[in-house]
C-alpha cells in the first residue's frame, strides 16, 4: 500500500518526546490496528453509531473538503479481552459512501481493515497524532465512548444511545477533567476519494499494553 502526505493543522507528524516508547509505538504502528490488538488478546468490535453529518473544520481539512460538506460517519469501540481499549471514527464524503467507499456501510461488526488492506489501489497518508481536546470532533466521540463504557450491561449499538451520550459529554465536558486520550489518524485514498480513519487509545489500553510488553519481550 502506498503512502501520501496528510496536511492537517493541530496534528503532529512525530510523537512528542514526553510519550513512552509503548505509546510512540502504537501511535505510529504500521498496518492494521486490529491485527496488533489481536496480539494482546481477543478483540471485539461494537458499532456505536453510523450517521450523516456536515464535515467539521478539523476533519474537512484532512479530507480536502469544504467545512459543512456532507459526510458519512462510522464510530466503533474495540475491546481487548473485555476491556474497552480503542475508539475509532471513520468518515468519507457522503457520495463516496454510496460509491467508492460503499463497503464501509456493510461492515457491521467487521473492522475497516477487511476492506483496506487487500486492495493495491488504496494508498494511505502518513500517521499524525495528538492528545484529544475540544473542539476536535473525535474528542467528543472519545468522551461518549468513555461514558458508554462506564455503564453496566452491553455497550450501545444504536445511534440514539450514542447520541444521548454525546449530548451528555458536550454538556459536561467543561466540568470534567480531560480523559487524556491519545489518538492517531490517517487518510486512505482510492481513485481520488478519501476515507479518514481516527483511532483513540483509551486509558485502560495503555496499562494492558505496558504489562504485556513487560511480560512478552518480543512485543515492541
TrEMBL record:
Principal localisation: cytoplasm
Pathway(s): Cofactor biosynthesis; ubiquinone biosynthesis
Keyword list, A-Z: Cytoplasm, Lyase, Pyruvate, Ubiquinone biosynthesis
EC code: 4.1.3.40
Cell compartment(s), UniProt: Cytoplasm
GO BP term, pick one: pyruvate biosynthetic process
GO cellular component, one term: cytosol
GO molecular function, one term: chorismate lyase activity
Recorded superkingdom: Bacteria
Pfam annotation, one family: Chor_lyase
Residues that bind substrate: 74, 112, 199
Catalysed reactions, semicolon-separated: chorismate = 4-hydroxybenzoate + pyruvate
Primary enzyme class: lyase
Family of this protein: Belongs to the UbiC family.
Full protein name: Probable chorismate pyruvate-lyase
Organism: Bordetella genomosp. 10
Gene that specifies this protein: ubiC
Amino acid at each position: 500500500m502506498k503512502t501520501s502526505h496528510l496536511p492537517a493543522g493541530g496534528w503532529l507528524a512525530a510523537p512528542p518526546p514526553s510519550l513512552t516508547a509503548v505509546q510512540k509505538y502504537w501511535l505510529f504502528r504500521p498496518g492494521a490496528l486490529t491485527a496488533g490488538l489481536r496480539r494482546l488478546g481477543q478483540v471485539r468490535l461494537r458499532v456505536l453509531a453510523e450517521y450523516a453529518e456536515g464535515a467539521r473544520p478539523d476533519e474537512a481539512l484532512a479530507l480536502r473538503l469544504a467545512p459543512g460538506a456532507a459526510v458519512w460517519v462510522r464510530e466503533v469501540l474495540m475491546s481487548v479481552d473485555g476491556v474497552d481499549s480503542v475508539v475509532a471514527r471513520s468518515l468519507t464524503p457522503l457520495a463516496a459512501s454510496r460509491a467508492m467507499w460503499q463497503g464501509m456501510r456493510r461492515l457491521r461488526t467487521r473492522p475497516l481493515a477487511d476492506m483496506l488492506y487487500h486492495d493495491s489501489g488504496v494508498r494511505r497518508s502518513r500517521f499524525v497524532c495528538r492528545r484529544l481536546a475540544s473542539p476536535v470532533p473525535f474528542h467528543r466521540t472519545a468522551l461518549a465512548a468513555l461514558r458508554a463504557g462506564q455503564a453496566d450491561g452491553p455497550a450501545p449499538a444504536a445511534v440514539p444511545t450514542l447520541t444521548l451520550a454525546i449530548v451528555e459529554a458536550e454538556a459536561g465536558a467543561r466540568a470534567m477533567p480531560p480523559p487524556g486520550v491519545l489518538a492517531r489518524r490517517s487518510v486512505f485514498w482510492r481513485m481520488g476519494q478519501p476515507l479518514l480513519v481516527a483511532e483513540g487509545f483509551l486509558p485502560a489500553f495503555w496499562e494492558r499494553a505496558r504489562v504485556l510488553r513487560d511480560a512478552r519481550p518480543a512485543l515492541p
